[in-house]
Amino acid sequence: MRVFLNGRGLEVDGAFLGAALLGREISRGTLPYLYCGNGSCRDCNVLLEGLPDLPACRLPVCTGLSVRTSEEDGRENALSLAVASPNVRDDVADELTCDVAVIGAGASGRAAAAAARSAGRRALSPTRRGWGPDATGKVLHFEARAVVEEGVTAPSPVLVRDLALFCYQDGTAHRIVARDLILATGAREWVPTFPGSTLPGVLPCDLAERYLALGHAPGSHVLVTARGERGAALVRDLLRCGARSARQIPEDMMLASVAGESRVDRARLVPRDVELRTPGSDDQVEVDSVIVAGVRLPSIGIARALGCEIEYDADLGGERVVQSSDGQTTVPGVWVAPRAL
Q1: Sign of the C-alpha dihedral, residues 3, 7, 10, 13?
Q2: Which of 178, 269, 286, 324 has CB 3.0 to 4.6 Å from 328, enough for a Cys bridge?
Q3: Is the dihedral of CA 49, 146, 210, 262 positive or negative?
Q4: Cα(218)–Cα(106) distance, integer angstroms
Q5: How much is the mean pLDDT over the chain?
Q6: Is the pLDDT of residue 267 over 90?
Q7: Is a pLDDT exceeding 70 seen at residue 321?
Q8: Which carries the bigger pLDDT value, residue 269 or residue 180?
Q9: Looking at the domain assignment, is residue 87 inside a domain?
Q10: Quick one: 56 exposed, middle or buried, by C-beta within 10 A (0-12, 13-18, 19+)?
């Protein structure tokens, strides 16, 4: 299968991304080993389709994945060193210069780029073969995820090294030079901790949605914990992409645990009402993948790497970028785009 590693196409074989990138299977608990195999040691964390800090040992391989082997702030881990990821400090192409650079291709990023163009700011816009000028001047707008146009995947991953911002195009690094930088990197879903939550086959909803957007069902027999229309849409997309069975968790039940040897093979459901949890009320479900709805926290890796001040928000339940009412961070020229409704 063909994936994009740091912007360069790579043919890989294997069920899980970490082993596929290494070209060999890794046995847990035996030396020498690179990673733990359950996502705990963080030595194989990658950025996948714009989502940071995901354990490659637990990520299914499918064609078209856009992967970065170093953390969002540019620190290299064991996996990135093992697969010899490109060193942007040694091989840098022409700089990309503009007034405003927008990082993120969601609703907030698109709105920020449109506002910059309306204000007459210089920008660069994406074209079929890379980044080129448009009729308005020059707005620099980077996709956080892979861009698919006419069947060709052209990922443009962005990372920070030594407080400088870079992007990859076809495996070549370009330093981004901008007077103002707008971060619209969105949020990621964190899987809550429960028995078996580190087993391969347990995925957050947003990651499962990225796989499904590429036409890949991350399992054959899938349990979905998301409720309402989001869960129903996941079930429909799973079946459309080839899953043999997919079901939402019943409204009166909740996920208690999952279990398995090398990956998930069963899930335990219990009644949501504590008073109804009598012996025999549990439901054991045979599955090979569980898609979990978790807490959404802002993706702050690029802001942290650029030196922006970070604080813990008790109401949010996680960290956020310190910013003024208009989105200005503590680093001059770096802004956070408001969340689009």
Answers
A1: negative
A2: 324
A3: negative
A4: 23
A5: 76
A6: yes
A7: yes
A8: 269
A9: no
A10: buried
**pLDDT band, very low/low/confident/very high, at 50 (cuts 50, 70, 90):** low
β-pair partners for 253: 271
List, in sequence order, the alpha helices (H) in the chain.
17-22, 78-82, 107-118, 205-213, 228-240, 301-305
Does 182 share its domain with 243?
Answer: no
Tell me, yes or no, whether 198 and 281 share the same domain.
yes
Domain range for residue 313?
Answer: 96-186+297-336
Q: How many domains is the chain built from?
A: 3
Indicate whether 262 belongs to any domain. Answer: yes
CATH number at residue 284: 3.50.50.60
pLDDT for the residue numbered 323: 92
Q: What is the pLDDT of residues 51-65, one digit of tens each?
A: 777 888 888 888 888
- Which residues neighbour 249 within 8 Å (Cβ) at sequence distance 6 or greater? 223, 224, 225, 227, 231, 255, 269
- pLDDT recorded at residue 150: 33
Helices vs. strands in the chain: H and E counts, helices first: 6, 26
pTM, 2 dp? 0.72
Q: How big is the CA angle at 139 (ends 319 and 189), to the nearest 5 degrees?
A: 25
SS3 percent helix, strand, coil of the chain, rounded to 5, is 15, 35, 50
Regarding whether 236 and 311 lie in a shared domain, the answer is no
The 8-class DSSP code of residue 41 comes to: S
Boundary-marking domain end, from 39, 56, 82: 82
pLDDT-derived band at 1 (thresholds 50, 70, 90) equals confident
Do residue 164 and residue 220 come from a single domain?
no
What pLDDT sits at residue 99? Answer: 80
Q: For residue 191, what is the DSSP state?
A: P
Distance CA 74, CA 90 (A): 14
